[in-house]
What we know:
Blueprint: E1 4-7, H1 10-15, H2 17-29, H3 42-58, E2 62-69, E3 72-80, E4 90-98, H4 107-121, E5 126-132, H5 137-143, E6 147-157, E7 164-173
Amino acid sequence: MTTEIHALSADRLEARLAEFGGLLQACVAAGASVNFVEPFGHAEAEAFWREKVLPPLAAGRRLLLAAELEGRLAGTVQLDLDTPPNQPHRAEVLKLLVHPACRRRGVARALMRELERQAAGLGRHLLTLDTRSGDAAEPLYAALGYVTVGVVPGYSLDVRSQRLDPTTIMYRQL
């Protein structure tokens, strides 16, 4: 099983909004801490892609990668390129999502490696990200060479409860 990674244009994302909405909704339902809380419907998921991702993608301020596994959308990750004039060398990794049915197959690793390759090609050699402390993604990022800067306590609400979760801030120099 080969994971195919593609950079998507705004037009391609727009044509696949329902599919991307389904991926986001499935990840949130599985407990992913990616800014949303339950209940989280498909309309909200599609609105995220339409309102928060399409505009910067169309303006060239965002890179969106999609992973295809066995002909279906298995995952996605974004790179925020909208940095201030004194920070043209860095970018922020956003929303690494892998469908729950496609996890533990190397999809996240493949997405991150391609994201890093594309970032380097764009002259971005410092990548930053944050992840809920203790999530499965945290050791993945560490294995990929991301260094922990620190932990911010009480950073965000848990997906299903009023509990406040910490976040781990990380970076990697390419």
